[in-house]
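> example.struct
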């Protein structure tokens, strides 16, 4: 420690009583720091405190003790100007310690209770009393999809602390750590969609530079009910430069048939394939028809990109909001965007739904298809964007850079070919949850049973069977009857940026998961049983047990006509979704059945 000893001498002609007192006090405090500090060194010399820190604390103790002695003996007091001289001396010996008002209070505290309490930093609250098990409880409770608040979580933790004998944290501690841990459990607490759209960073992706550079494809449920509360799905193909819907198909679901018909419609209306098609990771990609179709368009120069990032096909994702709010909502029968919508005005009131019922019935499938045609035309012809033109005008304003497709090429692409194995004399094709069966005649059965064949079909009424290797035709088989997703603009730097962004997102997800595991493992080290005690708290009670035990509740149930013995148990499960510790691997390593190293 360095001490300031400047101005300890006196110059003639400049004598000041205040200056004299300050210099005299400085010498006293300096001597105390040098000579008296050795008396207190043992007090602060503990294993957890470094040697230089212990010396500094002993010197501070000595200086405060001497200053308090001067203060207590009446040389100075709180009501005279001499306290200022003592404070000036203290700041000379111990710079950057106290302000004037804090020093005044310190003198009184040291005089009454000694200097040790002033020297040792006792800040930190109750954190040292709150172990990692309590933190694990907090993390578990926060992870529930019911979104428990800090007050309710504090009640849970208080009950568990009483049960296991741990120090109970204050509500303010729970609130502080609640917001600290919130990013780690945001995915489980708020749902994956809200976490992805609201919390995670996103890459900026510019639209394609010209028509035909990229198509974005996706399906959207039309907000109109048929009888039985059924709906129809519209599969749309959108040009990523202009925003124009160049092709679409309407069906009960977004199945393989609907997807290929929508793309075929786009190819027919534009006469081209795009340089790239972007889609989400749909089950369509697992079918043989998809594999053959992708192989066929790749030979033509078109690339199919599957992405799990909604922002990669952000144009078509955003269009559905406009599609529903601006164009579907004015139509009769509009029932809203569904219960999962994040839009405040995305649901139709129950009173309006009742009016639809009173009007007679919901819409038919043909009526909804006609509405879809009208809505697509309105969408394409309505001015959108800052340039003041419609998607159709924007599409026609620039030259199409797509890949030309003639009639023969279109037939090769969309008269689909798939490979199937004949089993029990028939071919089964599964689409959209429906199995279409085609039974071979005896001649085909003899030659083709249990063999792989190639199949092409235009619709499901009849299929054409070919040799899988030579593509030679075998014949037509009727249906069995029953009695009753813009590479053209990407540079290496663009790809690098997207790859870096993907790595950043993976790093965020891995960090949160790793942090949860670390907290769980530390909690297990403190108390393996208590670490997962929040599971019981977040598992709803089976209240039927109380009724079966008899008493007032059982009598009340009987009064309401409930036969308790016939009521099945309420299914319950834990709402905790945080990651557990690495107990499984640890147990396997410790098992006597696991392979052990040989002892030499």
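> example.seq
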């Amino acid at each position: 420690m360095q001490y300031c000893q400047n101005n300890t001498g006196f110059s003639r002609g400049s004598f000041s009583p205040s200056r004299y007192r300050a210099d005299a006090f400085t010498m006293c405090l300096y001597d105390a720091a040098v000579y008296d500090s050795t008396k207190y060194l043992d007090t602060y010399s503990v294993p957890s405190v470094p040697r230089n820190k212990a010396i500094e604390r002993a010197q501070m103790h000595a200086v405060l003790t001497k200053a308090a002695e001067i203060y207590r003996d009446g040389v100075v007091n709180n009501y005279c100007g001499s306290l200022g001289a003592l404070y000036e001396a203290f700041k000379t010996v111990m710079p950057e310690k106290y302000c004037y008002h804090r020093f005044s209070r310190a003198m009184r505290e040291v005089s009454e209770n000694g200097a040790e309490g002033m020297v040792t930093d006792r800040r930190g609250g109750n954190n040292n009393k709150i172990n990692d098990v309590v933190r694990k409880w907090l993390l578990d409770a926060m992870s529930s999809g019911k979104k428990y608040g800090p007050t309710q979580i504090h009640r849970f933790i208080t009950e568990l602390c009483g049960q296991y004998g741990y120090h109970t944290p204050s509500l303010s501690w729970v609130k502080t750590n609640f917001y600290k841990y919130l990013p780690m459990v945001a995915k489980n607490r708020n749902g994956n969609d809200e976490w992805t759209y609201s919390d995670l960073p996103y890459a900026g992706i510019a639209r394609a530079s010209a028509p035909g550079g990229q198509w974005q494809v996706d399906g959207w449920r039309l907000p109109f009910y048929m009888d039985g509360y059924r709906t129809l799905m519209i599969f749309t193909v959108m040009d990523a430069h202009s925003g124009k819907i160049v092709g679409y198909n309407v069906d009960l679901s977004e199945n393989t048939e609907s997807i290929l018909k929508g793309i075929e419609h786009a190819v027919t209306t534009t006469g081209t394939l795009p340089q790239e098609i972007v889609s989400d990771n749909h089950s369509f990609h697992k079918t043989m028809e998809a594999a053959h179709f992708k192989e066929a368009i790749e030979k033509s120069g078109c690339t199919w990109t599957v992405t799990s990032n909604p922002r990669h096909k952000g144009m078509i994702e955003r269009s559905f909001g406009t599609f529903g709010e601006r164009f579907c909502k004015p139509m009769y029968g509009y029932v809203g965007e569904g219960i999962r919508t994040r839009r405040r005005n995305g649901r139709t009131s129950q009173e309006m739904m009742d009016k639809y019922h009173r009007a007679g019935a919901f819409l038919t499938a043909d009526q909804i298809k006609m509405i879809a045609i009208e809505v697509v035309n309105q969408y394409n012809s309505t001015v959108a964007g800052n340039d003041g033109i419609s998607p159709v005008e924007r599409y026609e304003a620039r030259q199409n850079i797509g890949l030309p497709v003639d009639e023969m090429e279109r037939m090769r692409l969309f008269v689909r070919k798939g490979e199937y194995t004949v089993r029990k004399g028939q071919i089964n094709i599964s689409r959209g949850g429906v199995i279409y069966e085609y039974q071979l005649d005896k001649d085909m059965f003899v030659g083709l049973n249990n063999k792989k064949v190639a199949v092409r079909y235009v619709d499901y009424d009849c299929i054409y069977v070919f040799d899988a290797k030579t593509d030679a035709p075998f014949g037509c088989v009727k249906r069995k009857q029953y009695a009753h997703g813009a590479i053209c603009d990407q540079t290496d730097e663009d790809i690098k940026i997207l790859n870096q962004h993907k790595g950043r997102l993976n790093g965020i997800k891995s960090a949160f998961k790793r942090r949860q595991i670390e907290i769980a493992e530390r909690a297990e080290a403190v108390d393996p049983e208590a670490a997962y005690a929040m599971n019981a708290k977040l598992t709803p009670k089976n209240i039927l047990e109380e009724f079966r035990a008899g008493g007032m509740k059982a009598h009340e149930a009987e009064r309401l006509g409930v036969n308790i013995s016939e009521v099945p148990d309420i299914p319950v499960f834990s709402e905790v979704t945080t990651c557990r510790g690495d107990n499984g691997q640890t147990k396997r390593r410790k098992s006597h059945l696991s392979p052990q190293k040989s002892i030499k």
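> remarks
Confidence is low (pLDDT under 50) at residues 1-15, 586-600.
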